[in-house]
Amino acid sequence: MLGPPFLDARAGASVPAVQAVADASSFGRPAPSPAALAPEPRLVDRVAARWAADPGAPALRWRHWPAGRWWRRGELAERVAGWAEGLARLGVGPGQRVLWLGTSTPEQLLGVLGALWAGASVIPANPKLTPRELAHLLGDAEPQAVLAEAAQEAGLHAAAELAGRPLPQLLRPTLSGPVPAPGRPGPGTAGGARAGAGGDGPAPALMVYTSGTTGAPKGALLDQANLLANAAALAWAWEWTPEDRLVHCLPVFHVHGLCVGLLDSLAVGAQVVLLPGFDPAGVVEALAEERASLFFGVPTMYHRLVEARLAEHLARLRLAVAGSAALAPGLHRQLVAARVPLVVRYGMSETLMLTSTPPAAPARPGSVGVCLPGVEAAVDESGEVWVRGASVGPGYWRRPEATAASRRDGWFRTGDHGRRDPDGWLTLLGRAGDVVISGGYNVYPAEVEDVLAGYPGVAEVAVGGRPSAEWGEVVTAWVVPRPGTELVPEELLAWAAERLAPYKRPRELRVVASLPRNAMGKLLRHALR
Ligand code: MCA
After folding, report:
1. Across 178-205, average pLDDT
2. Whole-prediction pTM value?
3. Was domain 6-42+224-431 assigned CATH 3.40.50.12780?
4. Which of 27, 219, 264, 268 has its Cβ near the most Cβ atoms within 10 Å?
5. With 70 as the cut, is the pLDDT of residue 472 above it?
6. Which residues contact 30 (CB under 8 A, 6 or more apart)?
7. What is the C-alpha to C-alpha distance for residues 151 and 432, in angstroms, rounded to an integer?
8. Residues ≥6 apart with Cβ < 8 Å to 320
9. What distance in angstroms lies between residue 504's CA and the mean position of ligand 1's atoms?
10. Ligand 1 center to residue 502 CA distance, Å?
11. Mutate which of 250, 256, 303, 441 to test ligand 1's pocket (most atoms within 8 Å of Cβ)?
């Protein structure tokens, strides 16, 4: 590993092995500075300016609404302001943390926007998390309030019990504002540590939980300026305008669906049609009927569209963007053959979007393109990708060591391995760690191993990914039973199902006599696949 300030040496000839990824001028237009792209300090200001400028323009609609029904910008502005006031009346305001179990309903989206407008820090989370997983979030993030639907309350109570702490105030989202769950702590009880207190830095807009090799998810902080820089960079790179209309079927609790899909559309002033989830036929029908110009998806979605022989319906779009996981070159070629106007982009929860293929450039399967404006990227001599820029967040919530370990001289270490092509394009070659990426979701083997190892009949366990054309990788567990016990796979999977969200559960379980280890006893993960 090169020492600091190794990356700044890349411009000179002293460290030729460190290679800079091409900057945004490779889009074929002069790249503006981040300040020129987004003069406002915060994403919410940019969006508010859009709403004020043209209140009658369509902003959001749900696919199941009657044709032509929209929330126009002015109506959305009023609803969000009302929501923010409702939160303030309940004691939720600047510097406080709101856990948001995000579903794509109108009520829930008003909830997340209302919380951002109220100045709170939002912790977006998968509504399918189990009580065990929610307990970690409650304990680590210490939210003062939780926005969740009534059906999720039992799981939250169980989580608080597991965490051994009082439940924060539970707020049910309605169209007119937050309503305290019956029998729960009432108005004025939101309290506790404020984000930003105790050396945590300024209050972030989002705290996005993402795991590491330790298996304990940590909150990646993103501030309003990061969100705005990302929105402005993508708007420039994709020539995204208010005329564009996105069909949005991504989960709204991840950066892809929440920031790129929803918040960036609002910042651009573009239109969004929300679907409750992805199914190939439903999406294709929506694209045509809604006269969409944009579609954002993970590779699994594109794979399913190709398998259903529906990919050519994407040809009429202005852009179809793929991200969140590696797009296999073969799948990329199939999409190009179907004349899909494909753009591939690369990002992380900690950094927001980093690179994109320029829309006008010829397809280059396997590559994630060049830097977005305001972003710099470089590949170090060991092949790891480092980045810095206006969208890179300030670090992890209450994890100074993890924050320090992920950075050097202002550069963020992505943990991805990459290659710089001769003309500066970036091709990703895999993760430095053991993370399994299944359908665009990151699964950390250590977390799954911890859960499986807790099952009484298990002596040893290893978890990894096996290649899958549909999912990219599928989570697979190799399990060594305790001597004298008979391991019933269904029972072990039921144990996992109680403790892990659906996407983390092993799809394949292999009962083996021993795990491959080297002479030092270290697990040989590559020997498992
Ligand atoms: C669903 N299941 C999964 C996954 N998704 N299992 C493994 N991996 C998954 N990704 C479970 C379901 O709960 C169900 O379990 C079973 O698999 C079959 O479900 P199915 O109906 O086939 O799946 P689906 O519901 O159609 O979901 C597939 C999907 C979904 C639409 C591709 O996984 C998805 O929306 N992925 C997007 C993820 C994403 O947004 N990632 C962004 C994070 P059971 O049978 O037990 O009920 S990364 C990010 O934000 C970074 C910054 C970035 O750059 O984008």
Report:
1. 63
2. 0.92
3. yes
4. 264
5. yes
6. none
7. 39
8. 294, 295, 296, 297, 302, 314, 335, 340, 341, 342, 343
9. 10
10. 9
11. 441
